[in-house]
Input
Amino acid sequence: MDEEYDAIVLGTGLKECILSGMLSVSGKKVLHVDRNKYYGGESASICPLEELFSKFGAPAPDESYGRGRDWNVDLIPKFLMANGQLVKLLIHTGVTRYLEFKSVEGSYVYKGGKISKVPVDQKEALASDLMGMFEKRRFRNFLIYVQDFQQEDPKTWKDFDPNTADMQALYDKFGLDKNTQDFTGHALALFRDDDYLKRPALETINRIKLYSDSLARYGKSPYLYPMYGLGELPQGFARLSAIYGGTYMLDKPIDEIVLGEGGRVVGVRSGTEVAKCKQVYCDPTYVPDRVRKKGRVVRCICLMDHPIANTKDALSTQIIIPQKQVGRNSDIYVSLVSYTHQVAAKGWFVAMVSTTVETDNPEIEIKPGLDLLGSIRQKFISVSDYYEPTDDGLQSQIFISQSYDATTHFETTCLDVLDIFKRGTGEEFDFSKIKHELGDEEQ
Output
């Protein structure tokens, strides 16, 4: 550990592994350390099944669950947008060579006590049971506008400036009712609350375009999920970092982040060894004095032996319950994966219900999501604190990721990672810098 590094990354959560890969690819000398013996941190996948039961203090699973080693259960499951930032990063960096993905079969939204497929094109808009006939036509016109919209061609803006006018104004332009605004903002643009309505419309237009572009790639839903669970992702990025010269150390206690003049980081100490560095990137658990608690997230992992009703027996799906539908300030997310992803024994399903905690009784808050699942053989509930850094890290050169939120997709994770990279390096991540011929490097 006595060498000098450009950057030391602490923790092997997915965000930290992506950052270490990006920094290594950008020519930085990176040391990546984790106090744990395993990859993934709080975003790890648990295998075998017995370990999951013991983690939550439950008696060991009986024989009906099949072989324990056939299970890989994510503690924080999330889907990837097929055309989103993370998939672009995986493709550009060649990490896809270590991973296999499957398309998620359905994307649904909850309205008035039942779930409906999220409509994303003109045909689906006209067939959707979410809206009445006249509203369908208005929504169809809105979707056509979004599809034809080109940021660099003001003619496609149709007398509406999306850089200055807010999203509420765009909804009003097309006469969309509150219900339609609700599922558009939360199930298509994937916003977690309604603050977006007051921000420039361009942001929402781009998010809806991302959703429909992602859907166009695979057809059933815009989401992808890796075989064997999300635990494969950090390891893929760890390999990438190693190819570009990054060094990894697991099971290494971190005793101190060493500061020099002006409170700037100069190294990291483990026992008597100090590794010198110019920057540190880490998750909130390594720097409790530099983060603040922003809230809490409740998650419930549910093991089931059947798919979710009214999803056409989909073997994988996402359901978003917009906040207003259940009188809340934040959405409830439901995700389902199954044995077809090699994360459960044959015939078994793993569902997750999650939301941002708003009361003293988190378990009651996820009830609308649990009610959609039908019979649950076993459930594990966890409530975790959500932390964010107290400063931008520019003075100390310690750059801290936010905790994982309640969403069941990776878009917020990617935005956090790209923001940290920009703060740390002073530039946007340049995807074109990455060598595409990674195969030559590994020979």
Remarks:
- Residues 436-443 have pLDDT under 50 and may be disordered.
- The radius of gyration is 22 Å.
- The longest helix spans residues 201-218.
- The chain has three domains: 4-42+231-292+387-442, 57-105+296-386, 118-218.
